[in-house]
Amino acid sequence: MVNKILLVGPPGSGKGTQGVRLSEILGLEHVAIGDLLRAEISSGSELGETIKAKVAAGELVDDDLILGLIETRVEEAAEKGYILDGFPRSVDQAQKGRKLAEPVGARPELVIYFDVPDDIVVDRLTARAEIEGRADDNEETIRHRLALFHETTKPLLEFYEKQGKARMIDATAPVDEVTEKILELMRG
Ligand code: AMP
Question: Does pTM top 0.85 for this prediction?
Fold first, then answer.
């Protein structure tokens, strides 16, 4: 069974939920870049201050900073496997990530692309805003994050299809079904 997986999809497509479930089922580490960034913001560090405005506006945080987060984890990831949620978010990041991962054997084996229509994303995130109160879950920022997804992140589908690693799943299906489908794809 493969153990190096990327979860790619628009905000609100269920990557975080599935990442947690899969890591519990498989005992793999779930790394969510957004969670790492929010933890840094909450810590009140100087770095957190730099990140805060970008995340709140739904902009991408600078590649150097994100690659720094990846770099410290790449060797352990090669050894133990991973479920990575939120990286890469652009083809540029994927190419930079590859340079870090390739030498240590940490490249992803399978890329799950969460397919979900925009209007469902907006509904889901608006509902999440009431529960979690994330600063970036307001309608204007949601629309911006979605536009950014289409422009910058979606090209990753073709990028990984060319490598034979991408699999698209229907992320509007019930949570259990999505988990089952991913496990099936991992089994190959
Ligand atoms: P998420 O929790 O995955 O929705 O991410 C929340 C926010 O964190 C995003 O809207 C970005 O501002 C930032 N972020 C997460 N992952 C990345 C990344 N790979 N590159 C740049 N910014 C990121």
Answer: yes
